[in-house]
Design a protein that fits this description.
Distance between the termini: 62 Å
Order of helices and strands: HEHEHEHEHEHEHHEEEHHH
Strand order of the largest sheet: 4-3-2-5-6-9-7
CATH architecture of the largest domain: 3-Layer(aba) Sandwich
Strand content: 15-25%
Shape: elongated
Number of strands: 9
Largest sheet: 7 strands, mixed
CATH topology of the largest domain: Rossmann fold
Number of helices: 11
CATH superfamily of the largest domain: Vaccinia Virus protein VP39
Length: 277
Amino acid sequence: MPPGSGRGGRRRAESLVREVLGLAGLRPSDRLGQHFLIDDRAVGEFLKPLEKAAAEGIREALEIGPGAGSITLPAAEVLDRIVAVELDNRLASALSRLAPARVAVITGDGVSHAAASQAPLVFSNTPFNLSPAIVEALAVNNRVAAAVLGVQYEVARRMTARPGSRDYSRLSVLVSLVFHAELAGVVRPQAYYPRPQVLTAVVTLRRRRRWRSLYARALELAGCAFTQRNKKASKVLRRCLEAAGCAPPPWLDSLGDARVWMLRPEDFVGLAEACRG
């Protein structure tokens, strides 16, 4: 039986990473943003929300970027089925040699799989440069009911920000439109090999609303508006609407002196509806 394949004998993360990298014959790639989780306590920050999902009956998952399997193999002890999508084919091949039968390791692009996945649960210690794209892909995929994501701490702050806060952004609008987001934990750089230059945060997402095609236009307007987040919202939105070929709605002037960073996600949806006609 391969190491880590039983539900009772969990491998230490550092030992597992060492073995998988040895089997793959590779060193971490800066180009691919590879940082491997080697701290068992940090692995637990990801496992706790996965165990909660499993207890609620969500037992099939997609993992984006399993790397050396630090989260994959422990997660297989609580989930019935995992499809793990790894971009690096050497890592995918090495991990597949150690993974239990309930884990299917495939080579591919994680963002594309996130958008098309049939699994109700997605988890990922995300490559930092892909975090926003992964979140957007998950938002659009209404089959995804929940997600557990490791992201750069600053991105986590934006994902969980509320209107009026310093970190509020287009990403905040996107997440809030369809998910309930919570900061579940923080992972220090020392938990990774090699060490990243930033803190990692574990964010949980729970779907609270289905994605609507209307939201794409709402996010387009939000993206335009947040390029001038400290300006008066009515003036900025008027320019954004005109650039999109839409007539500003009569209620736009009622925003008064409100700034862009004070607008609610629902305000952008209302603008998108007005733009639609």
